[in-house]
Design goal:
Structural class: alpha/beta
Organism: Chryseobacterium formosus
Number of strands: 7
Strand content: 15-25%
Number of helices: 5
Protein name: Dienelactone hydrolase family protein
Keywords: Hydrolase
Shape: globular
Radius of gyration: 15 Å
Family: Belongs to the AB hydrolase superfamily. AB hydrolase 2 family.
InterPro entries: AB_hydrolase_fold (IPR029058), LYPA1-2/EST-like (IPR050565), PLipase/COase/thioEstase (IPR003140)
Helix content: 25-40%
Largest sheet: 7 strands, mixed
Order of helices and strands: EEHEHEHEEHEH
Strand order of the largest sheet: 1-3-2-4-5-6-7
């Protein structure tokens, strides 16, 4: 089984925008849900692209399950993000003007895609997520972010995403020349808080 490409849109028209924000929803969420979050971000001039996961989930198990157990959904999900990026590039948007926002399962997918395809992007926000796999396979991650700003926000503890994986992810991104900002909130729960939105706006969407 694989995901059917279904990209919901918002904001400016792709052919009229200079910047694009790709928004990746979490498990059980929807593209429309995450698009609605954009009203709190400084992205008035951006085209918004939000792929919809088939059946509402990007892959069936935890992101720290053995990778093969999340296949073929996981590979298809990564491909879906790649196709979403390609749609922006094909419209004439430069990679350095493509931004990302992912939450939970969508944050994991965003980070996995970025680490596998590092280059200078506009920036990325990943709330409660980390790179995917039971163990981290560093060999999968290649490229140079050329100081792309990436903001990682999370709660400690979080039922789905261990804090150790967030730290390990931050270290990998830094090794790959990303400009990483991490913020950990004690016992905040599995959601997005106001300060994370404000930090996203000041660090990424400035």
């Amino acid at each position: 089984m694989s995901h059917i490409l279904d990209i919901k849109t918002g904001g400016k028209l792709l052919n009229e925008a200079e910047k694009v924000l790709i928004m990746i929803h979490g498990r059980g969420g929807s593209a429309q849900d995450i698009l609605s979050l954009s009203q709190h971000l400084n992205v008035e001039d951006y085209a918004l692209l939000a792929p919809q996961a088939t059946n509402g989930s990007w892959y069936p198990l935890s992101f720290i399950a053995p990778t093969e157990q999340n296949e073929p959904w996981l590979s298809s999900a990564i491909e879906t993000v790649g196709k979403t990026v390609k749609s922006a590039l094909d419209a004439g948007i430069k990679a350095e003007n493509i931004y990302f926002f992912g939450f939970s399962q969508g944050a994991c997918l965003t980070l996995e895609f970025l680490a596998r395809n590092a280059q200078r992007f506009g920036g990325a926000v990943a709330i409660i997520g980390g790179v995917i796999g039971e163990k981290i396979n560093r060999e999968k991650y290649k490229g140079d972010f050329a100081q792309t700003p990436i903001f990682l926000g999370t709660s400690n503890p979080d039922f789905h995403v261990p804090i150790e994986r967030v730290y390990a992810t931050a270290n990998i991104l830094k090794e790959m020349n990303a400009d990483v900002t991490e913020k950990v909130y004690a016992n905040f729960g599995h959601s997005i808080n106001q300060e994370e939105i404000e930090l996203a706006n000041s660090i990424i969407f400035k």
